[in-house]
Design a protein that fits this description.
Layout lengths: L2 E5 L4 E5 L5 H10 L5 E5 L5 H13 L2 E5 L4 E5 L8 E2 L1 H4 L9 H8 L1 E5 L12 H9 L3 E5 L2 E5 L8 E3 L5 H11 L6 E4 L5 H12 L2 E6 L2 E6 L5 E5 L4 H14 E7 L7 H9 L3 E5 L2 E5 L8 E3 L11 H8 L4 E6 L10 H6 L3 E5 L2 E6 L7 E3 L3 H13 L3 E5 L2 H6 L3 H6 L4 E4 L1
Helix pairs in contact: 1-2, 1-7, 4-6, 5-6, 6-7, 8-10, 8-12, 10-12
Length: 417
């Protein structure tokens, strides 16, 4: 089994190119089921994307990577395709369930395995099914599969989610793309990745308006050749900003959109992180005398749960006691025992983590439990004395493109063995 070896206490400098957003690419890939010919640009070459492409191929779409252009061409020229998403392709990636909406909308039936992914909480699909039932689908769960049908097609309706869910909002949007009439989705997620999906669906002819947490979908899809560039990955950017604050003389990030990370920038500034920020450009510097802070993870535009584990490392270097309240997932502190083994002073009570600092971290052999936890161990390794060995790095490869190469280019001592 492969692992990452990191020798800490190195001063980093250089520039890092931020990849396209994984969490934007995945629903857009699912949306290509609705179209005939699609080119998606700026895609990240990470395992979750490869798995979703394999799923599309299994369904019957033709997919061709253009690696030098960071693009993929997808063609759906079949009327009779396989409307099944099997367990073997969905078990490692929760986003696989996103093919449910477009398959049901276009082919009036779908059989999709209940999804897997990171073990950070139950993340049930009940809100996905709630939305599809509102649109007129008949659904049952059997032998670990969601079996859905809509013999007369889906029809526009009002969907008001009892809780905010990114995945359920995406599936509702994808299913409503071919529904008759107008669909109104309330109490929905409005993440930048969802706004990117909406931009893609608009290119197919849909009329979509967003007002607060209310999305209206009307109009008719016109399958045609579409080209779409995916937004940059705000979670990857936030991760490397934290790395820079911990270790760098200066790291530069170009060709990004800082409007997507206002809360993250505000949080880092409050902690005393030194940055030079422009609209499409950020420089970050090693930041001493970091200040304690209390944060709560919330749906966008709040602080993202996907950066919770990473900012915890920054908090270990701040003076005083910081606090994180995790409001999204119930099992998202699984990295804490590994950080304690490295010397971090962290106490957990229910959904609250109290982090005392500054702490001197020491390298150790640790194990990644999920995607974002794994990268938090990388950050800890970068500032720890001696060597850190990170096991189960397949989690990292699901969501971070060329992490080892990007950090090496900034003079980090990191290698995969």
């Amino acid at each position: 089994m492969r692992k990452l070896l990191i020798e800490g206490k190195k001063t980093l400098s250089g520039s890092i190119e931020i990849s396209g957003s994984k969490n934007s690419t995945l629903p857009i890939l699912a949306a290509t089921i609705l179209n005939n010919k699609t080119v998606i640009k700026n895609i990240p070459y990470v395992n979750d994307v490869f798995t979703m492409v394999d799923l599309l191929k299994f369904i019957g779409l033709k997919c061709h990577f253009l690696k030098k252009q960071k693009s993929i061409q997808i063609t759906n020229d079949k009327t009779n395709i396989n409307t099944v998403a099997p367990y073997k392709l969905v078990k490692t990636m929760r986003a696989g369930v996103l093919v449910l909406g477009p398959l049901l909308a276009k082919y009036k039936k779908a059989k999709v395995s209940l999804p897997g992914g990171c073990a950070i909480g139950t993340r049930p699909v009940d809100l996905h099914l709630f939305a599809l039932k509102k649109l007129g689908a008949k659904i049952k769960i059997k032998n670990g599969y969601i079996i859905a049908s809509a013999e007369k097609g889906l029809h526009g309706t009002n969907i008001k989610f009892p809780n905010i869910s990114v995945g359920a909002t995406e599936n509702a949007l994808l299913a409503s793309a071919l529904a008759t009439g107008t669909t109104v989705i309330e109490n929905c997620a409005i993440e930048p990745e969802i706004q990117d999906l909406i931009g893609f669906l608009r290119k197919m002819g849909l009329k979509i308006t967003i007002l607060g947490r209310k999305i209206s979908v009307s109009g008719k899809i016109e399958p045609k050749k579409i080209s779409h560039k995916v937004i940059s990955d705000r979670i990857e950017l936030g991760t490397y900003l934290i790395a820079g604050a911990l270790t760098s003389k200066k790291i530069t990030f170009k060709n990004i959109d800082t409007s997507f990370i206002k809360k993250e920038i505000e949080t880092l500034k409050t902690m005393g992180v030194k940055m030079n920020i422009k609209k499409n450009y950020i420089e970050v510097f090693r930041s001493n005398n970091l200040k304690k802070i209390n944060i709560k993870t919330q749906p966008y535009p709040g602080f993202p749960t996907d950066l919770q584990a990473q900012i915890m490392i920054l908090m270990t270097q701040a003076t005083g006691q910081s606090k994180i309240t995790e409001n999204i997932f119930e099992n998202r502190f699984m990295h804490v025992p590994e950080l304690r083994r490295m010397g971090a002073k962290i106490e957990i009570r229910n959904n609250v983590a109290n982090i005392s600092g500054p702490s001197s971290l020491t390298g150790a052999e640790v194990m990644a439990t999920d995607l974002r936890a794994s990268v938090s161990l990388v950050l800890a390794g970068l500032i720890a004395d001696k060597r850190t060995s990170i096991n189960r790095i397949y989690h990292l490869e699901r969501g971070y493109q060329d992490l080892e190469k990007k950090l090496k280019n900034c003079k980090a001592s990191i290698k995969k063995v």
